[in-house]
Amino acid sequence: MASERQINVGGVLIGGGAPVAVQTMTKTETANVEATLAQILRCADAGADLIRCAVPREADAEALKTLVAQSPIPIIADIHFNHTLALKAIANGAACVRLNPGNIGGPEKVAEVVAAAAAAGAPEGACCVGCCGTAAAAAAQRVSAVATGAPPPAPPPAAALLRPP
Questions:
Q1: What residues does 79 pair with on adjacent strands?
Q2: 128 three-class SS
Q3: What is the mean pLDDT of each run of 10 residues along the chain (165 residues)?
Q4: Alpha carbons 11 and 50: distance in angstroms, whole number
Q5: Half-sphere exposure (CA, 13 Å, Cβ side) for 115?
Q6: Which of 50, 47, 63, 39 shows the shortest CA–CA distance to 14?
Q7: In whole angstroms, what is the distance from residue 42 CA to residue 127 CA?
Q8: pLDDT recorded at residue 133
């Protein structure tokens, strides 16, 4: 079933009946601008619509300035554990940030990233909060409420958080 919701990530439409977008990820250290850009160009030439780059360090977030300026396709910053790197990736032009709310430091930090993405003009949904399962979906709903100032929904009952046998 196709999603009814559509977002625009750097000019690439996702969901809402848009054609499937091909996304891949670089395997280089993002701070190695020359090697990362070469890999981005090869992926774009092979048909990738979007590219994800790991941003585990300050130098990687800084490298995004150059990479975004020279990339022919939108760059998604892949962030784990440090929400300040997501804030820097947004400031340095990433079309989207992908983060996991379970390892970023709590709903307030996720909400800060979502707010920064909105302030930078990112369309709704361009801050991709990766989640799966009932517990993560409930966490994403609570994070969304914090980001918008709405009261958070009640947490699911503990039984809903258990995986089926």
A1: 99
A2: strand
A3: 78 90 95 97 95 97 98 95 94 90 84 86 58 45 51 49 40
A4: 10
A5: 14
A6: 50
A7: 25
A8: 41
Contacts of 149 (CB under 8 A, 6+ apart): none
Measured CA to CA, the distance from residue 2 to residue 4 in angstroms comes to 6
**CA dist., res. 80 & res. 31, Å (int):** 16
Q: What is each CA distance from 46 to 42, 77, 103, in whole angstroms?
A: 6, 20, 33
Residue length of the chain: 165
Q: Is 87 exposed, middle or buried (0-12, 13-18, 19+ CB in 10 A)?
A: buried
Residue 123 and residue 3: Cα distance in Å, rounded? 17
d(CA 34, CA 78): 19
Q: What is the pLDDT of residue 94?
A: 94
DSSP E strand stretches across 18-152? 23-25, 50-54, 75-79, 96-99, 127-129
For the entire predicted model, the pTM comes to 0.75
Closest of 102, 123, 120, 114 to residue 149, by C-alpha? 114
